[in-house]
Amino acid sequence: AEQERIFVERQPGSASRAARAGAVLAGGVTSSWQITRPQPVWLSHGAGSKIYDVDGGEYVDLHGGYGAGLAGHAHPAIVEAVQRQVARGTHFAQPTDDAIAVAEHLAGRFGLPLWRFCNSGTEATMDAVHLMRAFTGRDLIVKVEGCYHGHHDSVQVSVTPDVGDVGPADRPNQVPASTGIPAAIRDLTLVVGFNDLDAVARLLEEHRGQVAGMILEPIMMNAGIIPPVDGYLAGLGDLLHAHGALLTFDEVKTGLTVGPGGATARFGVRPDLVTLAKSIGGGLCCGAVGGSAEVMGFVAEGGYDMVGTFNGNPLTMAAIRAVMEHVSTPDAYDRIATLHHRIETHLDDSLRRHGLVGKPVVAGAKGCVTFLDRPVRDYRDFLEVDDRYNHAHWLFQHNGGVFLPPWGKTEQWLLSVQHDDADVDRFLANFDRFAAAVGG
Ligand code: PLP
Fold it and tell me: Looking at residue 390, what is its pLDDT?
């Protein structure tokens, strides 16, 4: 309560805007996940690793725009590329040279030869699901309980914690994750636990010849951070292919945040399709689908029309090219790994010193603290994570000048290529204050 009072007192400008916004923006925000408690925060600008609210407050930005902030703010290479392109035209609905360069970069990094672009993670996974169905001529898809793939019908199933009767762990129920999704579409999405190959094998047997493919986050990142166990991703590929079904890695969140070639290169498992968005765009709206010669070749032959007025938008292409050539560099990954090593070591120690049960988990530039006494292997473990501390942690960080994603149980922080030791110092000092206040 004390931290919430401080929060509100520091931000009169946000409070007055929240009141005005409520009259014209539904719920006072532009996306339901922009709601923060005790009130929404209005930002004025960002620079480097920092963002600034309308009351002049400065924050180390570890929210990272829900994972789209790998470049940090106003990165010189992005500014230069976008300014150059904006003066030469913002939209043509025809491909540009940058689109070829970007596809060449992605093909090299992800080991998948053919690419198309779209405008969000949701569009990318929607196209991937359509394409798996079109290519195989089958309707059913398999998804993992707790994975989020955007807000289109086929994947809005069994996503968020505590949404309803989740059923037995080895045979999860298909739980609608949003209103407005017809039951007939939900029923086409079969659900399995993460890291459970047997469940996939069983579903493929039970629905022989009917499963188009499976979509999953290769590292789960909408349930904290849950890595795949050894052999899981490769095993999925083998199983699905043996049944004539396809594998899609949704790398919208992982992507360049976990390495130059995403989780795909990191684990050395080549799926049929990869979806990308947030991590590649330098903060611009973007999406991409890459795939094998066979499956994306089907698109090339007109087997599936992957379309969109703004696909391959020149501004977006210029920004992604700048990310590929100047942001997502070997040096940047080394710097981020060093900062994360500091964070992990310090947090482990702070949790122990203050008698709190929890574990920092990092993957590349992404990190979170999971308040549980054991590693989280799947969504069922994740449901047992103690959620009492996340909001308090968020408030302590916010009031201490660090902006984290507000949904602390599910979301991760993101280090950008512009964060430095001083930013990490501020984060760690706030964490210690939080741990001292709530710890035993
Ligand atoms: N896929 C994953 C793994 C995501 O985390 C998200 C968004 O959080 C999406 C897809 C949807 O992306 P967007 O919000 O750009 O539509």
Answer: 92
Q: 149 CB under 6 A from ligand 1?
A: yes
Query: Buried (b) or exposed (e) across 47-73, using 16+ Cβ within 10 A?
Result: ebbbbbbbeebebbbbbbbbbbbbbbb
Question: From its phi and psi, is residue 364 left (phi > 0), alpha (psi between -120 and 50) or beta?
Answer: left
Q: What is the pLDDT of residue 38?
A: 87
Task: Read off the amino acid at residue 314.
Answer: P
In a domain, 91, yes or no: yes
72 Cβ closer than 6 Å to some ligand 1 atom: no
Question: What stretches in the chain show pLDDT beneath 70?
Answer: 161-163
| 175 CB neighbour count, 10 Å cutoff | 18
Where in the sequence is the domain holding 109, given as residue range(s)? Answer: 76-327
Distance 278 CA to ligand 1 centre (A): 8
In a domain, 36, yes or no: no
Sign of the C-alpha dihedral, residues 334, 338, 340, 345?
Answer: positive
The rounded Å distance from CA 56 to ligand 1 centre is 30
- 66/121 Cα distance (integer angstroms): 12
pLDDT at position 162 is 64
What's the 180 CA to ligand 1 centre distance in angstroms?
19
Among 122, 154, 285, 414, the mutation site with the greatest number of ligand 1 atoms within 8 A of its Cβ is: 122
Domain total in the chain: 1
pLDDT tens for 283-322 read: 999 999 999 999 999 999 999 999 999 999 999 999 999 9
Confirm whether 205 is domain-assigned: yes
Classify residue 303: in a domain, yes or no. Answer: yes
What is the Cα–Cα distance from 60 to 431, expressed in whole angstroms? 13
Contact between 217 and 228 under an 8 Å Cβ cutoff? The reply is: no
Q: Is this structure's pTM higher than 0.80?
A: yes
Q: Using a 6 Å cutoff on CB, does residue 217 contact ligand 1?
A: yes
Q: Assess whether the C-beta atom of 49 lies below 6 angstroms from ligand 1.
A: no
Q: Give me the CATH number covering residue 294.
A: 3.40.640.10
What are the residue numbers of the active site? 148, 250, 278
* pLDDT at res. 371: 94
Rounded percentage of the chain residues whose pLDDT exceeds 70: 99
pLDDT at position 388 is 87
Number of other residues whose CB lies within 10 A of the CB of residue 362: 21
* Portion of the chain with pLDDT greater than 90, in percent: 93
The pLDDT, as a whole number, for residue 364 is: 98
Which atom of ligand 1 is nearest the CA belonging to 217? Answer: 3
- Does any ligand 1 atom lie closer than 6 A to the CB of residue 122? yes
Q: Which DSSP category does 278 fall into? A: G
